[in-house]
Amino acid sequence: GLSVDLTVTGPPRALPPGLELAAYRVVQEALTNTVKHASGATAAVAVDYGPQRLRVEVTDTGGRPSASAAAGSGRGLIGLRERLAVYDGILNTGRRLTGGYRVEALIPLETP
Question: Which residues, including other chains, have CB under 8 Å from residue 5's CB and lie 6 or more apart?
């Protein structure tokens, strides 16, 4: 029930399976948090295949917490940081000035 726009920039390329899974988990966790904490929001996912790094950003427009918001462990973003650290990646999160929330993962890629 969540409206999500997807934008992919840069030439997509094959990624190591673990790194691909880490990027997938970023999107999964961020969209799950949107459903839980921003009911009624819309979301956008941006994937940028840069020459030296993969950037994954998930933003939402904000909303109201759903009934399931209190059911989580609150450790999802911590787990993402730990998962990304394995690949020397970083996770930036926070409220957006225009409202809503932003989750951004920056993951270095090996150059071909």
Answer: 42, 43, 44, 45
Give me the residues paired with residue 105 across strands: 56, 91
77 closest CA partner among 90, 65, 59, 66 = 90
Q: Which of 3-7, 19-23, 76-80 has the lowest mean pLDDT?
A: 76-80
* Angstrom distance (rounded) from CA 25 to CA 40: 22
Q: What fold is seen in the domain 3-108?
A: Heat Shock Protein 90 (3.30.565)
Q: Give the global pTM.
A: 0.89
pLDDT at 5 over 70: yes
For helices 17-37 and 76-85, angle between their N-to-C axes, nearest 10 degrees: 160
The candidate with the shortest Cα–Cα distance to 64, out of 102, 84, 34, 86, is 34
How far apart CA 38 and CA 103 sit, in angstroms, is 14
Phi-psi region of 23 (alpha: psi -120 to 50; beta: other; left: phi over 0): alpha
Q: State how far the Cα of 51 lies from the Cα of 31, in Å rounded to an integer.
A: 26
